[in-house]
Amino acid sequence: MKAVLLLTLSFLPLFAFFTNLPLVLSDEVEQVVDINANPIFPGSTYYIIPAIRGPPGGGVKLGLTSNTNCPVTVLQDFSEVIRGLPVRFKIPGISPGIIFTGTPLEIEFARKPGCTESSKWVVFVDNEIQKACVGIGGPKDHPGQQTMSGTFHIQKYKFGYKLVFCVNGTSTCLDIGRFDAKNGESGRRLNLTEHEAFDLVFVEASDYEAIIKSVV
């Protein structure tokens, strides 16, 4: 079914460049675990890194893009040795809760820039590159660009997991992939995609150094 049948008129500009938006949530449900096979929990801090170490790059972080003066765009660092910034997961309305695949989640960085209202992940349309990208904050942090409210989900994928974004009030969900804007940015954009998703794993922040030493 075409996305235009699922979205309200106010949402049409955001997904004008997507035609057949698939519902990507799986029926198989299992508890989400970190790289050590320990369950991940809301409130704890984790690094998001590629499931396969090496040329795919490093962890996720914040960066400057387009005409912004505040680092409000989520990027994956080009370098595999960069861990990025730790994130926290929150289950809306539930604390602490258990995180299963398909559980609706809010994601936020453990620290936020002083120039933004929050470190909570959102989706916004970058008018310059015409892609729906992952950022942080709210509409005031993305002036002149449309933002979308929704929840993130974790699903099993290839060697690890993938993140999925579901638009509030609809059954429309899209995978989170990566896009190299090739305009001098310090990493790859995280963006909504119908193509290959970002194959990733979670590392508890306190365990990161020990894990990296064991694989180097």
Structure notes:
- The chain has one helix and 13 strands; from the N terminus they run E-E-E-E-E-E-E-E-E-E-E-E-E-H.
- It has one helix spanning 208-215; strands at residues 45-50, 60-63, 73-77, 87-90, 106-109, 121-126, 131-136, 147-148, 150-157, 160-167, 173-179, 187-193, 200-204.
- The strands form three sheets. A six-stranded antiparallel beta sheet has the order 2-3-12-11-10-9, with no helix packed on it. Strands 5-4-1-13 form a four-stranded antiparallel beta sheet, with no helix packed on it.
- A hairpin with a 7-residue loop joins strand 11 and strand 12.
- Residues 1-24 and 211-216 have low confidence and may be disordered.
Can you count the beta strands? 13
What is the number of domains?
1
Sequence of secondary-structure elements: EEEEEEEEEEEEEH
Structural class: mainly beta
Helix content: under 10%
Strand neighbour order, sheet with most strands: 2-3-12-11-10-9
InterPro entries: Kunitz_inhibitor_STI-like_sf (IPR011065), Prot_inh_Kunz-lg (IPR002160)
GO molecular function: serine-type endopeptidase inhibitor activity
Protein name: Kunitz-type trypsin inhibitor-like 2 protein
Keywords: Disulfide bond, Protease inhibitor, Serine protease inhibitor, Signal
